[in-house]
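Here is this case:
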Amino acid sequence: MNPKILPLPEHYSPSSVSEVWRVPYQERAKEAEKWAKKFNITPSSQDKFKIYLLLIDVQNTFCIPGFELYVGGASGQSAIDDNRRLCEFIYHNLKLITEISLTMDTHQAVQIFHSIFFINDKGEHPEPHTTISSDDIESGIWKFNDVNASSLQITASHGQELIQYYTSKLKDGGKYDLTVWPYHGIVTGIGHAIVSAVEEAVFFQSIARYSQLDIQMKGSNPFTENYSALSPEVLLKANENKISENNSKLIERLNNSDAVIIAGQAKSHCVASTIDDLFHDSHLAKKDFMNKMYFLEDCSSAVVIPGVIDYTKTTNKIFKKFIDAGMHMVKSTTPINKWPGICI
């Protein structure tokens, strides 16, 4: 075994990755401290080469069978297998991972991508996975559900103006039409929580390396989608007032690292959108940022609904652009010190 690769701790159970359970923090903390002493794991503050692990939306809502937007893939096991490999990657590389960030899709009931936001002339809400274009709004197929206006602290006319402007901005930007998703990632709910096995692994790393876990909430603004961890789909309202902000603090954290590793769900949506924002960031482009990015290709999957839709080919085309720009595609089972450009 490579001397930099650590064994898996006894508490880790691959079969538990598909389940939801309580992490025994106090017990794991004691084990992590003993683990650090046994394997001479130093505090992350001593790292000369800083490796940042960015995990996108490894939440129950996307990763556990039976939850709202489970990324099962063609096999039905994709997110489970991805997270099993991810947990093992974290444990094997505790000595090398300096810092971990977790992004969390964070929603409430009344948001622009949930059914309750819209209504038609029959008083019906759109079904999940309905797409709504600017033409649909202009022709009156779907309207702002104005009974939401009071709780959103806007007027009914403002709500209608907002959805027309928002869908037009998506069209003008060459993006997809607005998708109505099943209610998911509801803050305080069990679907919002991080997958238990992943939560346990990152907690273990945090204690063993004296490295505070960084939590990045995204998607709570009711007036915009927020696939990317770095920015919402639409930033400005029709009056040029801001809907939301770019996540400049996360960009700065990533920029200050020597290597950035990315994994999570879903590869076709939130992962791709996050990397695309990094790809287009003018400040990062000047620093040739893509060359220090590493994508764990076996710890992330595209959305596939057998017989309905398969985003695999579209996603592969998008990722080819990132690879051509310098991003490295790597396997979680390949030792980090064997990756191109890693100096440890």
Remarks:
- Residues 115-179 form one domain.
- The first strand starts at residue 51 and ends at 56.
